[in-house]
């Protein structure tokens, strides 16, 4: 039974296995390594995951969800069709798909995984990720920080001399910066800092906002499908700018068409407030490390690392252009796969050692005296401590005859407890006595997954290690069983193969986005695919796919250059009109 490594990304997820002495990315059914982290509920109640679901973000935005990772561990729910989902359930569906792809590829059952998470994920988000895996039928053998996975693989691949490097992982929704010290075969993560709400998605949002501003449009007033399409255009223009100097974005409302020319200067201007936040995170990481010393190399990973304006910005900041890692959006998955290899004790990886640090400080709320109303933090584990970390401290009673001590456990850097994230509570009995006589020894252990364990022993001999945790993330056993049952009920859409589904969804989207003869052509393709999917011959179906794939690609590229793409809110049936230039 194989163990897999998974990069469960905000935008894209990848799965990797370590075998025959190397980390190997596993392709999905449509033949790509990246699986879109998108989920859609179909009219028959079944669920579609991946690229085909991503297409439906535009055609059926109300039934589709993406970027749900940034909501992991929160109360936010998603309504898709007539079903309600928690972010961890949506992540579980992505994980289930990846697991299925891995099983098909490896030809054996897969039940264990190493999953990467943003270094800055807090305890709630980590627990939610573990829960998502459980829902998908995967046991998590290790949660590895994404930048640590990247560092691990980068080091493994390019085995240089002893050095200090900075890894910047800039993805779709999160930014992680870590400082890594490499000494022989030891890779030590010495500091991390990050922002869980900063990524390529924010850049797309800034472009969309600018587009709307320039054209006197209000984003919220656009039809959801048009808005989703505008986002896609904005993203495409952003990506195009990594190679070209400018890119066009066009939409049309009724008789009027709107446009924006995105130049590098404009993109840089739009990115600037976001880049200032990148800068803050970088300097935080520098401050978080214990030892100073030269950073020999800055390595960029993550999809957004390919932004040339980011390279420009960092070059100004560091006085030297950072290196974009080879395969920047695959390296985290490869690192997770390598980590799975280490966990499985692959011979040749025996001497590769990696240590990680905790990104947050952890402690309990404590009072200065009986009249103190606003408790401050007593930290048991400081941020940047090497994992696993463990520390104990004694806390004394404040009142005469006090018979219990209650500990509120927090994660964060604020002086006052109320500024930090509350993780849970623990109450322990002490023998009634004079104030300050009795106490409890509290022990915090932060494991290598970045998950906290708390226990307490009182001077009266009481012992507790059951935390009362965030009720949203930590379910009771009954709720747990219920969630598993609910997940079992969800069927993956079985309409044709995934490749066929993707082609069909793409054709449906292009139908929505085009006009006139192109639209008719799309309609013809839709019918052709639908009929083709009913054919019993595998060969005939494969042939159909190949043919349609080419035609769709052509149609898509034509539509890209078409200034008139959508027609919404038109009352005079002007849908028939062709390009207006
Ligand atoms: P995540 O880890 O968050 O799932 P990825 O690392 O796959 O995300 O990065 C996805 C982000 O990278 C998206 O915002 C996407 O627009 C952006 N991206 C992908 N390719 C490029 C490119 N060539 N230039 C700029 N941005 C890119
Ligand atoms: Mg990523």
Which helices and strands appear, and what pairs or packs with what?
Blueprint: E1 2-8, E2 12-19, E3 22-25, E4 35-36, E5 38-41, E6 47-49, H1 51-59, E7 64-66, E8 78-80, E9 83-85, H2 87-106, E10 110-117, H3 123-135, E11 139-145, H4 146-158, E12 163-170, E13 175-183, E14 186-195, H5 200-214, H6 224-240, E15 246-253, E16 256-263, H7 264-288, E17 297-301, H8 308-318, E18 323-324, H9 331-343, E19 353-355, E20 362-366, E21 376-381, E22 389-396, E23 404-411, E24 421-429, E25 439-446, E26 452-458, E27 463-464, E28 468-469, H10 477-489, H11 498-513, H12 516-532, H13 538-560
Parallel strand pairs: 1-10, 10-11, 12-17, 14-19, 17-18
Antiparallel strand pairs: 1-2, 2-3, 2-4, 5-6, 5-7, 8-9, 12-13, 13-14, 15-16, 20-21, 20-23, 22-25, 23-24, 24-28, 25-26, 26-27
Helix pairs in contact: 1-11, 2-3, 4-9, 5-6, 5-7, 7-8, 11-12, 11-13, 12-13
Kindly summarize this structure in a few lines.
This protein has 581 residues and is of the alpha+beta class.
Rg, please? 26 Å
The biggest sheet, with number of strands, parallel, antiparallel or mixed sense and barrel status, is:
6 strands, mixed
Mean pLDDT: 89
Tell me the total number of β-strands.
Answer: 28
The top level CATH class name of the largest domain: Alpha Beta
What is bound: which ligands? Answer: adenosine-5'-diphosphate, magnesium ion
> Quick one: CATH superfamily of the largest domain?
ATPase, nucleotide binding domain
Helix share, percent: 25-40%
Strand fraction: 25-35%
Q: What is the CATH architecture descriptor of the largest domain?
A: 2-Layer Sandwich
Query: Could you give the distance between the termini?
Result: 60 Å
Write the CATH fold name of the largest domain.
Nucleotidyltransferase, domain 5
Shape: globular
Helix/sheet category: alpha+beta
Low-confidence stretches: 564-581
Number of domains: 3
Please tally the helical runs, counting DSSP H or I stretches of 4 or more residues: 13
């Amino acid at each position: 039974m194989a163990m897999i490594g998974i990069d469960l990304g905000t935008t894209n997820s990848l799965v990797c296995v370590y075998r025959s002495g190397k980390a190997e990315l596993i392709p999905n059914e449509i033949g790509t390594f990246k699986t879109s982290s998108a989920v859609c509920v179909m009219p028959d109640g079944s669920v579609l995951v991946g690229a085909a679901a991503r297409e439906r973000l535009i055609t059926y935005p109300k039934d589709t969800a993406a970027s749900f990772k940034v909501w992991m561990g929160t109360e936010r729910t998603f309504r898709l069709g007539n079903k309600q989902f928690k972010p961890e359930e949506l992540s579980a569906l992505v994980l289930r798909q990846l697991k299925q792809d891995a099983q098909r590829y490896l030809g054996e059952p897969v039940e264990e995984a190493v999953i990467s998470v943003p270094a800055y994920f807090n305890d709630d988000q980590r627990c939610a990720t573990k829960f998502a895996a459980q829902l998908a039928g995967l046991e998590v053998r290790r949660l590895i920080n994404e930048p640590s996975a990247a560092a691990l693989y980068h080091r493994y691949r390019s085995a240089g001399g002893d050095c200090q490097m900075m890894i910047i992982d800039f993805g779709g929704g999160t930014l992680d910066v870590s400082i890594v010290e490499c000494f022989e075969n030891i890779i030590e993560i010495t500091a991390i800092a990050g922002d869980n709400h900063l990524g390529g998605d924010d850049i797309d949002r800034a472009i969309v906002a600018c587009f709307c501003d320039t054209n006197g449009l209000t984003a919220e007033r656009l039809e959801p499908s048009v808005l989703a399409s505008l986002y896609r255009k904005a993203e495409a223009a952003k990506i195009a700018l990594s190679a070209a100097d400018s890119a066009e974005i066009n939409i049309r409302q009724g008789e009027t068409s709107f446009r924006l020319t995105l130049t590098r200067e404009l993109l840089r201007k739009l990115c600037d407030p976001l880049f200032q936040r990148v800068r803050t995170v970088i300097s935080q990481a520098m401050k978080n490390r214990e030892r100073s010393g030269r950073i020999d190399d800055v390595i960029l990973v993550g999809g957004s690392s390919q932004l040339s304006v980011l390279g420009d910005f960092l070059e100004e900041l560091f006085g030297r252009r950072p290196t974009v890692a080879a395969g920047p959006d695959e390296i985290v998955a490869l690192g997770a796969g390598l980590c799975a290899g280490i966990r499985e004790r692959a011979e040749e990886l025996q001497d590769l050692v990696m240590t990680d640090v905790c990104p947050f400080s952890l402690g309990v709320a404590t009072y200065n005296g009986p009249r103190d109303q606003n408790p401050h933090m007593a930290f048991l584990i400081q941020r940047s401590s090497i994992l696993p970390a463990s520390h104990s401290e004694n806390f004394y009673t404040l009142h005469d005859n006090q018979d219990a001590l209650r500990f509120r456990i927090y994660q964060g850097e604020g002086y006052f407890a109320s500024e930090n994230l509350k993780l849970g509570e623990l109450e322990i009995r002490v023998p009634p006595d004079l104030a300050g006589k009795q106490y409890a020894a509290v022990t915090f252990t932060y494991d290598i997954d970045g998950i906290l364990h708390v226990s307490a022993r009182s001077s009266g001999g009481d012992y507790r290690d059951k935390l009362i945790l965030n009720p949203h993330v930590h379910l009771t056993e009954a709720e747990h069983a219920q969630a598993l049952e609910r997940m079992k009920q969800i069927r993956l859409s079985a309409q044709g193969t995934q490749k066929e589904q993707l082609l069909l969804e793409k054709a449906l989207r292009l139908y929505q986005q085009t006009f006139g003869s192109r639209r008719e052509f799309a309609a013809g393709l839709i019918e052709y695919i639908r009929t083709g999917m009913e054919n019993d011959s595998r060969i005939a179906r494969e042939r159909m796919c190949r043919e349609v794939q080419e035609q769709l690609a052509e149609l898509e590229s034509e539509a890209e250059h078409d200034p008139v793409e959508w027609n919404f809110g038109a009352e005079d049936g002007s849908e028939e009109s062709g390009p207006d230039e």
